[in-house]
Input
Amino acid sequence: MALIFYSSSLSDPAPEVTSLIWDKVLHSAGYALLAILFCRALRGERIEVRAGALIAIVLISLYAASDEWHQTFTPLRTADLTDWMADSLGGIAGAALYAGVALSTASRQPRRLPR
Output
């Protein structure tokens, strides 16, 4: 989150990269990674995988909206609805990926019998 906040504070972050890669792909990838980290943190708090994924998606969307608002205070930057959508879709993809892997891994592990 700190890296996203920092890059949103720059007027023209990574022009070498954005000239080669569509910025919506970068938005989606960054927020997908953040969603995976949120899911992992929530799982560490013993929140069920599906619930954690849904919570992560909500947190991602809210953080993305706050990031777009933050950019309105940065010279040469504006808030962009399509950036928020790319961020949110990336968050959905990351949370879905995490949940899919976590659930498929859990279904392959043998169940322990109660004592």
